[in-house]
Amino acid sequence: MSADTGARPTLAVFVSSHGFGHASRSCAVLEHLCDLEPELQIELFTRIPQWFFASLGQHLHFHELDCDLGLVQTDAFEVDYEATLSGLADRLPFQPDLIQNLAQGVSALGCQAVLCDIAPLGLAVAKAARLPSILVENFTWDWIYSGLAQQAPVLENYATLLQPHFAGADIHIQTEPVCLPAENAHRLGPIARTFRMSVSETRDALSVASTDPLVFITMGGTHIGFPFLEQLKDRFPEIRFAVSGASETVETDHSLTLLPVRGPLHHPDLVRAADLVIGKAG
Questions:
Q1: pTM to 2 decimals?
Q2: How far apart are CA 227 and CA 250, in angstroms?
Q3: What would the mean pLDDT of 41-67 be, rounded to a whole number?
């Protein structure tokens, strides 16, 4: 890791790659920070594809890093407990050499603070580098693991390992909907990226009239099949459906518009243009 940051204000950012929700929230936060501080340099550590953060432009230095396992899932809804436990056993507790190397790396990059969207590795790195840490979350993995311990009791051990990392953040920001309120946290409303197109412009791009009912179906960045598409066409011909992640290219099939995950339309614009959104919230 190397970058010529000079005297620019520089922020290390560790983002969970469990779906696109954490990346979307982080992107919204970082876009606003760049508006407030035009000289900001962002050193981003994640396995979310770099294209997702294209709006950050020249502010961004991207470092591909598997910084958060979270849960291994077979699709958007089902947890693979065996693979999750195997992955956690390989990662936790964090290896001291890994933490030290990353701490030295963010220090060498000139980072003055570390922002984490539920990636506990970043919090451990901040502590080792003696940098202020900021945690942004509406849930943390210790809470998730404790809730799933009935299905896999050993998850409680990993919750215990991770809890001090989350509790030790210097600044703790919780965004609605909050799963487990923390007394010392700053509470904010939902955080989302800004719109780029009007409702009418988005509907025009989809060839959907302003009077047509539009349903947007999305599972974010998590792979899932869509076995119900033919039923949507047959049973609800009067309703237009836009389905994200259902195709590699934009395709229109009667009342269906199938969209790739990396598509030409901004996700928040699709949400705003729809009359109903069906999706996996987290």
A1: 0.92
A2: 18
A3: 97
